[in-house]
Amino acid sequence: MTIEQHTEAIHKATTLVRELTSANLEGWSPQGEKNGTKVYTKEDGKLIRGDYVLKTSSFTYEQCAAVATSTIVRPMWDPSFDKAEQRRVIGADEGLYWVKCKAPWPITPRDFCVYAKVDHFKDENCILVTMTSVKDDQAVPPVQGCVRGTLHIAGWYIRKDPQGIAITYVNKSEFGGSFPASLMKLMASHIPQTIVRVAEFLTNYGFPPLHHSACITKESFDQKKMAYEATIKTDKPKDVVWYLAKQMYPKGVAIKTSPAALQDKVQVQTSENGHHRVTLLQVHQPVTITMKKK
Predict the structure, then answer these.
(1) Is residue 229 within 8 Å of residue 278, measured between CB atoms?
(2) d(CA 45, CA 29)
(3) How far is CA 73 from CA 12, 122, 141, 255, in A?
(4) 19-74 pLDDT, tens digit each
(5) Structural domains of the chain in order of their starting residue, each with its CATH number
């Protein structure tokens, strides 16, 4: 598929996620509540929805969305997630990904070709995240040792709430190939708990290094050292800004740049709720920046 075809697919998927995460629960079958998450299903249980309210005043809905969408910290809160690579960069909040998920032995791991898009609705104090499978064998070819699954639709609707942050998550997926029905049912039952894991991560660790810059071409994160590294390429001078959680960096942030001559262009400030604001001033050449705990 071309980028134009991907764009059409994600537009349809975004419209669907907007509908599925709305306050209208007509057609949804209530399945009870688990760990604070209200669970609903459609389509004979294949389409699953979870609703949760995180009672907090320490974080914003944008920071919560960063936990839900960041592939660099997802292995820390999602036991089924293996890895992800961005294969096509469409913008700061849009792209094509190869995603690999773990599977219990002797099941073959599953992988997915996923188009993901994040929409910010400032006037509504919310973020809508849409993910759907597309076919793009050039950018995301079949991988030996994996069975290609299909993510029919998945989405996050994360918004400001009087009690803190309201989170809605929907998912409909197929794992492809031969997959035991009992195991599929078990994995499906865990989907609503994805929300709880995001909330727990946010409470314990804060949010991952957060930015909205399309000029960041590569990111990595060392979970043990809480070390973040980003590569930046831009053709004109601009400031690049990150927000780092005080929970993740309680004693501050140690920063290095390569080339080292750009070290004096780094500015660290304290932002709202005591989090760290890191600015790389007027970047106009390729640079790699590393941030670690002090």
Answers:
(1) no
(2) 9
(3) 28, 25, 25, 19
(4) 999 999 999 999 999 899 999 999 988 899 999 999 999 999 999 999 999 999 99
(5) 3-205 (3.30.530.20), 210-293 (2.60.40.1180)
Dist. CA 17–CA 12, nearest whole Å: 9
Residue position matching structure tokens 């537009």: 11
* d(C-alpha 98, C-alpha 143), whole Å: 10
CA distances from 268 to 206, 216, 240, 254, 287 (A): 18, 19, 12, 10, 17
- CB neighbour burial string for 225-243, b if at least 16 within 10 angstroms, e if fewer: ebebbbebebeeeeebbbb
Asked whether the beta carbons of 6 and 96 are under 8 A apart, the reply is: yes
Q: What is the mean pLDDT of residues 122-127?
A: 95
d(CA 64, CA 196) in angstroms, rounded, equals 12
The predicted structure's pLDDT at residue 182: 66
Instruction: Give me 137's structure tokens.
Output: 């064998």
Let me know: does 266 contact 280? Beta carbons within 8 Å: yes
CA distances from 116 to 9, 84, 195, 217 (A): 10, 12, 18, 16
- Residue 2: is its pLDDT beyond 90? no
3-state secondary structure of 198: helix
CB 232 within 8 A of CB 239: no
Answer for the pair 215, 232: CB distance below 8 angstroms, yes or no: yes
161-171 burial code (b ≥16 CB/10 A, e <16): beebbbbbbbb
By C-alpha distance, which of 229, 242, 244, 243 is closest to 287? 229
SS3 of the chain: helix, strand, coil, percent, to 5: 20, 45, 35
Instruction: Give the pLDDT mean for 126-140.
Output: 96
- Range of weakest confidence among 127-141, 177-191, 230-244, 254-268: 177-191
- The pLDDT-based confidence of 92 (bands split at 50, 70, 90) is confident
